[in-house]
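Reminder: ligand-aware prediction takes two inputs, not one.
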Amino acid sequence: MMKNILVTGGAGFIGSNFVLYMLKEHKDICLINLDKLTYAGNLENLKGIEGDTRHVFVQGDIGDAVLVGELFKKYDIDSVVNFAAESHVDRSIENPGVFAQTNVMGTVNLLSCARKAWEQEDGSYPKGVKFVQVSTDEVYGSLGETGFFTESTPLCPHSPYSASKASADLFVMAWHDTYGLPVNITRCSNNYGPFQFPEKLIPLMIHNACHKKNLPVYGDGLNVRDWLYVEDHCKAIDKVLRGGATGEVYNVGGHNERTNIDIVKKIIGLVNEKVDKSVDETLIQYVADRKGHDRRYGIDPEKIQKALGWSPETAFEDGIERTIRWYLDNDEWLQDVTSGAYMEYYEKMYKNR
Ligand code: NAD
Ligand code: DAU
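Here is what comes back for the chain with DAU:
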């Protein structure tokens, strides 16, 4: 039974949702939350658990061998859930080096520290220890108009981001195959929900629509993503952590494929209805396509459904309304993260697009 869990990247979007979910669901756990607090990490996301002694926040880098080694010893860590990563595809196209550093080398360091802490003299591992790597469907590359990614779809990443995540996945499996480390990998589709940094499609469009700014749609807007409410992803990771068979990969997704332009129009409709009647589709601006833009992602979640009894619980229509409501109710959060460095990022990415 897991007790002391090292959660990395637990101040980011999915990581903070996971921390909040786990503390709500499980009484007898302690979460050691290691996060570097890059532009994407935000302690405000964890305000709701301030004072909860089952949560310890440590600011630091997953690539820091001394720090991670100390955390394993000090807190007697028995599980790792690795969310920490550079996660934005557009940034990886501009600046790939840090993606290799954090996503690949950082993961290798965590694996080495986990092995050092857990491997016994005879090469076996104590019952119950587990390393869960939070990966992505992007490692499979791009689909045509039909078919879905299964766990046996060959890895075929295209962007520097997805190449770094695929590489990390291979290292995780290497630690399993070579040293016997008990691991799982989850590969989830696109998440949306509270605390998502407004560089990603859904929060960026909500933010721009609410401020009557142009809505930049890449290419023809017909690329397809498979959207999952973040809490459903957290529930899947919890199930894998507790019940995943050693060495197995689990795809996570909810058969909710949408074109980007449909998502943008849906957000316009809801902002028009709930915020400002003058927001309409004239805000849409088709801009230059992303380099190497994957056309379609679609997950086959049958394995996790059958093996672990997971299935998504939040319908997209509910999830997107809830998400827009969250951003409206948390305007201060949004203003904080969109001031300063965000403006520079936005100008650089979108000005001459
Ligand atoms: P995010 O960018 O919102 O958060 C990443 C977090 O990692 C931040 O808190 C950041 O400070 C931290 N971090 C970055 N570098 C670090 C380092 N060197 N050491 C310690 N902490 C560091 O990302 P997210 O969207 O929450 O994604 C979390 C994980 O889930 C990533 O591994 C990502 O690849 C994966 N994933 C994301 C999605 C999605 O739709 N967002 C879908 C599938 C999988
Ligand atoms: O599939 C899982 C992946 O989903 C995760 O591994 C990544 O960490 C996460 O960032 C996400 O990657 P995407 O590239 O699919 O997400 P993003 O929100 O950046 O873009 C979604 C789609 O919207 C994509 O086809 C590009 C398009 N887009 C995006 C932005 C930011 C636009 O048309 N305009 C935009 O301004």
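The longest strand covers residues 130-136. The chain is about 40% helix and 15% strand. We will return to this case in the review session.
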